[in-house]
Amino acid sequence: MKLNPQQAPLYGHCVITVQLADEELAADEEGVDYFLLFAGSTQRHLTSTLRSSHDTLEALCPPHDCCEVVLVTLCSVTRGIPEASEDPKSCLGRVAPLAEHRFSFVQDLAFDMAQFLVSTAGRVDGLDGALLLDECQIPLQECERLDESLALALHHLVLPSGWSLLGNKLTNSTDLNPQETLLHFSARRGLFRVTQFLLQQPGAREALRLSNRQGYTPSAVAALRGHKCLHELLTK
């Protein structure tokens, strides 16, 4: 078999195309299912596949816990046809390993960015570097791709114990100085999925009411940037 691509970010969720060799094709396509087994040093993942042509499969890459090269095994499962006199257990199917291929899980730019953003929460001037993105004219399609990959990376991250959008500050504190928060960042860039993730985190309610140094709350930033759907989300 051939895998394309042969690497994926730690948070997975990309489509892997599997090109089958002649010897891996089943004579009876209707009675055979294919699975991919990802075997790493500490985790294993089993994912199903969909057939896109007679010799091509597609699978959704699973997330993984560390950067490493894993072994991917293509397995076939032959479904049994029950007969009246047959033991039902014998019809569960036969599993056969067909081929193996190396596959890499890597830390990509979105994952690096997610780690950076999490580390800035509650830090004075922590998001100044991210504000430099305002000077870049990022195309809409690229922003949508960034939103999707960054949200996946944030979901995959293990957040530090006690972490909140306001850092280590008490989330019920009323003595909060104006500051740029992660919600301001996502509102400015129109990152809808990232904002949905942030709103589920500790400190979100307080961050929604917090103005930055220019006097704008996250919802006001979204409105000024013309992100209507995001503004509606932030004002629910």
TrEMBL record:
What SUPFAM superfamilies does UniProt report for this protein, alphabetically?
A: Ankyrin repeat
Gene3D superfamilies hit by this protein: Ankyrin repeat-containing domain
Q: Which InterPro entries does the annotation name? A: Ankyrin_rpt-contain_sf (IPR036770), Rho_GEF (IPR051632)
Q: Which residues form a coiled coil?
A: none
Any Gene Ontology CC annotation: plasma membrane
Q: Name one GO biological process term.
A: regulation of Rho protein signal transduction
User: Can you say what this protein is called?
Assistant: Uncharacterized protein
- Which species is this record about? Acanthochromis polyacanthus
